[in-house]
Amino acid sequence: MAVIIDGKKIAQDILDEVRAEVLRLKERAGIIPGLAVLLVGNDPASKIYIRHKENACKEAAFFSREFKLSQDTGEKDILAIIRKLNRDDKIHGILVQLPLPRHINPTTIIEAIDPRKDVDGFHPYNLGRLFTGNPYHMACTPKGILELLDRSSITIEGKRAVVVGRSNIVGKPVAVMLLNRHATVTICHTRTQQLSLTTRQAEILIAAAGRP
Q1: Which of 77, 78, 83, 138 could form a disulfide with 143 if both were Cys (CB 3.0 to 4.6 A apart)?
Q2: How far apart are CA 95 and CA 87, in angstroms?
Q3: Where in the sequence numbering do the catalytic residues fall?
Q4: Which pTM value belongs to this model?
């Protein structure tokens, strides 16, 4: 029998747990977790993501700073903001909303973030630690997928997992996370032959292709 995972309830449970932990941290050590978010340009989907993150910060009792920059902002200006945030003791996490405008190299921007503050888990340092099975910050969506499975009491170890998509943001990281949890992992992509045959063999199927 199929079981529908209630992602909204799980998300709210996690938010409540984080808020309680933040309040304890503030009372015990006087520390309020701080998140800085950079949005460059006017991408409609990015604006929605940023708004959701702002609301989540409020609910979790985080301190947050938003930098909403114009489409023509130069790479040097963004790097200057990141360097300042790297040194800011009130900011514990830095998140640059992707995609960036075409004139900005996302690799340059991501690699400028202090790996300890790279809460998206995209810095090569954090990706390397994930690959070696000793993660620090992990990519948010893949981590969320595993959290959904764990909180729904779905065993990962020993299962055949199929991931459709190989992006650096979702497909590759979630495949490594599943492998680190002892699943047998197959990665499918645009060049995969007989995709439907492979997906039907999956015990855990994750669609991360960005399209139906």
Answers
A1: 138
A2: 15
A3: 53, 97, 120
A4: 0.90
